[in-house]
Amino acid sequence: MKVLNIITGGLNADGITNAWLTFAEELKSNKSYDDVVIDFAKIEGLSNDTVTQRFHQLGISTPKLPARLNAPLKYFRSLTKLLKHGKYDIIHANGSSSLLFIEMFAGLCARTPVRIAHSRNTTCSYKLLHYLLKIPFYLSCNGRLSCGLDAGKWLFGAQKFTILKNGKNFSKFKFDDKIREKKRNELQLSNTLAIGHVGKFNTQKNHKFLIEIFKELHQLNPNTKLFLIGDGELQHDIEELVKKYNLHNCVKFTGAITNIPEFLNAMDIMVFPSLFEGLPNVVLEWQAMGLPCLISDTITRECAPSSLVEFKGLDKSPYEWIISINNLSKYNNRKTQSQEGIKALKDSKFDIKDSTHILIDTYKTLLSKKTNRFR
Questions:
Q1: I want to staple 205 with a disulfide (CB 3.0 to 4.6 A). Which of 72, 145, 199, 258 is the partner?
Q2: Is the pLDDT of residue 374 over 60?
Q3: CB 251 within 8 A of CB 226
Q4: What 8-state DSSP symbol labels residue 223?
Q5: Helix (H) / strand (E) containing 64
């Protein structure tokens, strides 16, 4: 079985790519999946070379494709050619709108038997195109996956879809006292309340509101620091806002790093005021680490199987968020919290072994049925 997986946002240091890296590691470590070959397309201008190298280290090919939105016709022709010449059985495209019609139609033209659209969010940037392309998208897609219930309803409406949870390897995300002590010493945290956030600097992640919250918190409690993990197009704007508020000594920009679990061990609480999300991987990781999480109530409850997560309205004032931060930061038995978080996640089928089994079973079922109504 040969699959071409396309992440329409590119191979980057983000939640979707990291989720697929976790799947790829599980596939490579389990000999029962030796007959499954998954290539990951590298879209020009959207993919990070360092992240791409992580796929290569697993022995995974990353065939190149031209820019998707800047040159859609060139992208479509190249994709169709790649599917034909590569003799792929399945095209599996990750996105958040009916613009996935591009990939589904390329698969149809290349006579690729299975064409899977994978919903990754609960809204999109190009809403007019999304609604205009809905019918042709539905007709050209014959496999439907979603990271969660709300994301699936957004993209597929009343059509049936399968929820494929972004499983985690919990051996990488569990609390470690020794790592916490070492990292906090390195970061010179001492008795400091360390607040964390992981996410790309874009409108969706709502960093500006996070800074507003932290500004008021730091005035009330100067012994606080905020760590912003990630990069993105709005990072410079947020850096300027931090300077404007004279917070540059207590707000730390780490960039896109590979040792995120080390930082999570050192944190005391995570704050995540996103405007919208599909089902955020990071919130799963934080619970596995035993970290209390304060997140916006625009995010699906599916990401919160444990009691470590509290939801807060974005219409609430920064001070109301601060009250919750102070209450949640009293959670201090990280080892027990981590054990309970991992148990809750496993009980809710967020283990990578469960997710990988569902993925491969879905591939095999769709391929055996060859549900392409046009063939």
A1: 199
A2: no
A3: yes
A4: S
A5: strand 64-65
Torsion angle of alpha carbons 272, 273, 275, 276, nearest 10°? Answer: 30
CA distance 53 to 55: 5
Mean pLDDT of the chain: 95
DSSP string, 224-235: EEEEEEB--TTH
Q: What is the pTM of this model?
A: 0.90
Residue found under tokens 């790592």: 179
Straight-line distance from the first to the last Cα atom of the chain, in angstroms, rounded to the nearest whole number: 19
Longest dimension (CA), the chain: 66
Q: Which residues of 116-151 are buried (b: 16+ CB within 10 A; e: fewer)?
A: bbbbbbbbbeeeeebeebbeebbebbbbbbbbbebb
Contact 234, 203 (CB under 8 A): yes
Token code pair at residue 128? 């007019």
Sign of the Cα torsion 252, 256, 260, 262 reads negative
Chain segment 202-260, per-residue pLDDT in tens: 999 999 999 999 999 999 999 999 999 999 999 999 999 999 999 999 999 999 888 99
Dihedral angle, C-alpha 359, 364, 366, 367, nearest 10 ° = 140
Environment class of residue 157 by beta-carbon count within 10 Å: exposed (0-12), middle (13-18) or buried (19+)?
exposed
- Give 352-373 pLDDT, tens digit per residue: 999 999 999 999 999 998 744 4
Is the separation of the CB atoms in 352 and 19 below 8 Å? no
Nearest partner of 277 among 311, 307, 251, 253, judged by Cα:
311
Sign of CA dihedral 302, 303, 305, 306: negative
